[in-house]
Amino acid sequence: MTPERFQTLINLLMLFALFAGLAIWWMTKHGGQRGRIAERARLAALSHRTDVSDDIEEEDVSLRKRLMHRLARIGDKLPLFDAKYRLKLKKEMIRSGYRSNHAVSILLAAKFCMGLIFATLTVMLGSHIPFIGTYPAVRGVAMLLVFIVGMIVPEYVVGFVAAGRRREMAGCLPDALDLLVICTNAGNSLGVSIRRVADELKTICPPLSDEFALTADELKLSGDSTRALYGLAERIDLPSIRALISTLTQSMRYGTPITQALRTLSRTERVAHIVSLEEKAAKLAPKMVVPMMMFILPAIIAIAAGPAVIQLLAFIDHSK
After folding, report:
1. Closest CA to 106 of 60, 158, 59, 146
2. Alpha carbon distances (Å) from 292 to 38, 103, 288, 289, 296
3. CA dist 223 to 189, 218, 227, 288, 318, Å?
4. Cβ atoms of 262 and 180 closer than 8 Å
5. What's the confidence (pLDDT) of residue 287?
6. DSSP letters of 52-70?
7. What are the backbone dihedrals phi and psi of residue 193, each rounded to the nearest 5 degrees, phi first?
8. Rounded to an integer, what distance in angstroms lies between the CA atom of residue 249 and that of residue 243?
9. Domain residues of the chain, as ranges?
10. What is the percent of the chain where pLDDT is above 70?
11. What are the tens digits of pLDDT across the range 119-133?
């Protein structure tokens, strides 16, 4: 057997071992009494969701929707993640702005597919890695590690998107509070004021506008203001939003004027935002030291000392 065929056989065996391990995990979760109980518990925990297969499929559905549909079906059938982990991912997806019922299933399918792609590439290209590519056992361990890393990467991407979204909403929150103060001072109710602020923020900060619009809808439909406000705090997950919700709930509970409380909170949030900007400006000078030393200082030295060095070299050559 030639070395090329031997390497190909080793690669196929590694891929077969990976898929066999996943199949064994699947049978462990679905087979036997314990597997059936775990599956029923998972389905009961996810009973509030609608089944993906019940979606209306039209002939002119786009390729992206069909892809999302297939990923959601794969994510629903994956036994690798329990209901507690799915609930954690659902909170993170909501904070990232993905409130669809199938967002968690799509994320789980993307995690699984990403892990398989990374593992397959590692197996197929691992023989070209210097020093360790000739050892099948090392490549097998690398395949497992890369599979785990590939499953972690999409979750970190979602966390990065959620953090950027929170930063954007935190920057526009003082303006939203000022608008809320104006609306409540004009005599509007809390739901109407939140709806008006959401409409005004559509072009300035779409994420914050969406969250306020959803809260206004919940206030209009359910009438439970406390639950709707705490839902807003859970979705945005910012200390300033939690302070706003606490102020509003206490004002409604004890009958104190909402306008005065919002005006105080708006002033405090505006001062905190200005202090944050001043802090970032103060940190700018130390952060510029390293780039200046790496890129600007060598050019200045070359310009200042270059002619003297050239004259010195010319003098040395002339003296020889």
Report:
1. 158
2. 59, 45, 6, 5, 5
3. 13, 7, 9, 53, 94
4. yes
5. 85
6. GGGSPPPTT--HHHHHHHH
7. -65, -45
8. 10
9. 3-53+62-161, 167-274
10. 76
11. 777 777 766 666 665
Of the candidates 300, 320, 11, the one whose C-alpha atom is nearest the C-alpha of residue 142 is: 11
Supply the DSSP string of 215-266, one letter for each residue: HHHHHHHT--HHHHHHHHHHHH--HHHHHHHHHHHHHHHHT--HHHHHHHHH
Amino acid (one-letter) located at 103: A
Q: Which pair of tokens denotes residue 187?
A: 């005599």
CA 99 centroid distance within chain: 13
pTM: 0.65
CA 95/CA 163 separation, integer angstroms: 9
Grade residue 50 by pLDDT with cuts at 50, 70 and 90: very low
Q: How many CB atoms lie within 10 A of CB 296?
A: 11
Q: Does residue 187 have a pLDDT over 70? A: yes
Nearest Cα neighbor of 171 from 273, 242, 279 is: 273
Q: What percent of the chain has pLDDT over 90?
A: 0
Structure tokens at 179: 């608008």
CB contact set of 95 (below 8 Å; sequence gap of 6+)? 162, 165, 166, 235, 236, 237
pLDDT higher than 80, residue 275: yes
Number of H helices, E strands in the chain: 12, 0
Residue 62 has pLDDT above 60, yes or no: yes
Cβ–Cβ < 8 Å for 30, 36? yes
